[in-house]
Amino acid sequence: MVPHLVTALTGPINELEQRVLDSMPAIERWFRLEWMEHTPPFYTSVDLRNAGFKLAPVDTNLFPRGWNHLTREMLPLAVQAAQAAIEKICPEARNLLVIPENHSRNTFYLENVAQLVRIFQMAGLNVRVGSIDPAIKSPKKIELPGGETVCLEPVARGKRRLGLKNFDPCTILLNNNLAAGTPGILEDLHEQYLLPPLHAGASLRRKSSHFHSYEELSKRFGKLLGIDPWLINPIYAKAEGEAALATQIDAVLAKVRRKYKEYGINEKPFVIVKPDDGANTGIMTVRDARDTEELLARMKGSNAELLVQEGVLTQERVHDGFAEPVVYMMDRYVVGGFYRVHAERGSDESLASPGASFVPLAFSESAHLPQPGAKPGASAPNRFYMYGVIGRLAMVAASYEMEATDPEAEVYE
Amino acid sequence: MVPHLVTALTGPINELEQRVLDSMPAIERWFRLEWMEHTPPFYTSVDLRNAGFKLAPVDTNLFPRGWNHLTREMLPLAVQAAQAAIEKICPEARNLLVIPENHSRNTFYLENVAQLVRIFQMAGLNVRVGSIDPAIKSPKKIELPGGETVCLEPVARGKRRLGLKNFDPCTILLNNNLAAGTPGILEDLHEQYLLPPLHAGASLRRKSSHFHSYEELSKRFGKLLGIDPWLINPIYAKAEGEAALATQIDAVLAKVRRKYKEYGINEKPFVIVKPDDGANTGIMTVRDARDTEELLARMKGSNAELLVQEGVLTQERVHDGFAEPVVYMMDRYVVGGFYRVHAERGSDESLASPGASFVPLAFSESAHLPQPGAKPGASAPNRFYMYGVIGRLAMVAASYEMEATDPEAEVYE
């Protein structure tokens, strides 16, 4: 189930969306069966792009921030899902330690930490925030603009466990994406649950691994829906360094061009080039040969691993800016979402950049809840449902990706 | 976690409630550990009575109706919990059959059925309603005052399975409390999940078994909270027929009188006498010897099994009538609640009688969510939390009761 939230999308329901809405029971069953075999990430957020003819995930975050942009009405769903997650992992849990990013002066970010603390407290845990920032040497209370406070405490590492002074957690929840690599202080914690696992860290994850898993899943899911998987899957290629880049850009653009022709889509294909590791900086839109040249000049001599990904236009606009939906999940449940809006970016550019703002999605106020089989007009369809489906599909892909990249996985040959 | 709903209760927080609020992490952990060993009923509603000094369950319904009195805002919680329940019981499920009560002309009741259908459809199942009323010989569409329709279809029984024409469910959800005994058509369905189990039926369940389980649990729970279990447990005795009744009434009244004295409570003790089986008719308040005589006269020669239960005053008033909260649970989760209000009943009478009305509890609109440890005044406490705790405690008791009365239980000696 996906909560019924108000989307910016209000036009007629196109074929893809209708197919998704009609297949709801089959889709929900498909997810239930997946979760019998695979473990959902503890929490996930997924950035989507809806071009109308096509809907695809473009980023799957395993250390989601931005929980503070979920409306208050959504919190009970997040709390209930958090209870389910905790119950599965460690029912005996009393204490949960949240490890945030180190930039402790960013009160926007700390509002997110405060919201996470609130969610897990309401789920019935003792929650404290332990910083791995060496600059935090004693408990530091930070007042937030909303009137709350967050207390960052220095973590204390024992031989086998991590905690705070007088606080021994059974579960450690990372909200720090470990972009700078895995800190030693988090290694060899075999007595505690450390979530997400260290190999989900931004320095170790590869976007290409994720989209490889997603592509495979989109084929199976496309078969379930009876649709071309391209309608939910962004074409991608991996390029190592400058040398391979032009070739891969051309290859992806050629594939997209062919698809646009097949579907009679009158838009200019473009690709997004981004680092293949977890970093979300230096994301660039490539529309033509000149963009490619510029990028190659910038990349000169570089060996960086890059992901060349089909660009998906966004059709949606909120407050006069282009917008993309972000879907939040806790355990296997969709618990909310919001729009990321960027007033200064175009419909073919990444919106995840400085200057973006966030517009919460409200619960639908429609008098009737969506009900399959109801007379047309009697119930408003849940336009957010489709986003919840593709968000969850990307979450399943992340689960496959984590299995495939687990350094401690047992290999049966 | 318990959703933060607005209660009628707005006075100062008394000692019992404060103890419950302060013990939240310990309480939630206690429930998690219980559910490791025991299976929650599929769905449950619990009637509570809050006397201020004491809060106790007085009825635990395993075939809850009244789902239509839950507000629209609560539905996502119910749907999410329904998903969790289905996933546990039968992840492969496609089809769910709901079996309602037979009184198909009661549109109040059918609004409840429509709400249940909606919840499970939104959880991603194909849901249809199968009547076991022999009067239903072909599909019957009934228009409801709210504009919806419910279609009652005649069930079709095969040798080993129950379904509808062209509809083979994997799970059958009873919303019919089987007050007239177990119909043969529901027996020997070993290939399908039939929930709740037949031994939860009103003709087989005994209130005294339930309150026996509850009493045992309240002792353990009282220890956890450091309180006298009487503060959450209604004293009871079982009486078989007229002969034992006067003695048991006196015995219960004497115990309550002792407790009132111990706590300096300046109220007149009373008992509620009700059938020990699942029926909720003929419930009577006994305040004094005259009431007892009247009851004995009525009972003359009867062998009926009765439950004599300490009466718990209700302190709460809504719209100038006395009110009692009803807590709704799906699987192990509290998903909502409402007040049952009866304008013509006193604070020491059962409100579950004709003429009662239902006032949904709204989600709290308080600007701040309750947060343990927050500055006083910075967060409004969740007054509904305590109701969710005692409601769930009664649900755990029902789980123990179902285990103890399961005719197919394996006995290890």
Protein described:
The structure is a homodimer. Chain A is of the alpha+beta class. The first copy, chain A, is about 30% helix and about 20% strand. Chain A has eight helices and 18 strands. Chain A has helices at about 15-20, 25-35, 75-90, 105-120, 205-225, 240-265, 290-300, 385-405, and strands spanning about 45-50, 55-60, 95-100, 125-130, 140-145, 150-155, 155, 160-165, 170-175, 195, 235-240, 270-275, 285, 305-310, 315-320, 320-330, 335-340, 355-360. In chain A, strands 1, 2, 15, 16, 17 and 18 form a six-stranded antiparallel beta sheet that branches. In chain A, strands 5-6-4-3-9-10 form a six-stranded mixed beta sheet. In chain A, strands 11-14-12-13 form a four-stranded antiparallel beta sheet, with helices on both faces. In chain A, helix 4 links the parallel strand 3 (about 95-100) and strand 4. In chain A, helix 5 (about 205-225) packs across helix 8. Chain A is globular. Chain A starts with 14 loop residues before the first helix and ends in an 8-residue tail after the last helix. At the A-B interface, helix 2, helix 3 and helix 4 of A face helix 2, helix 3 and helix 4 of B.
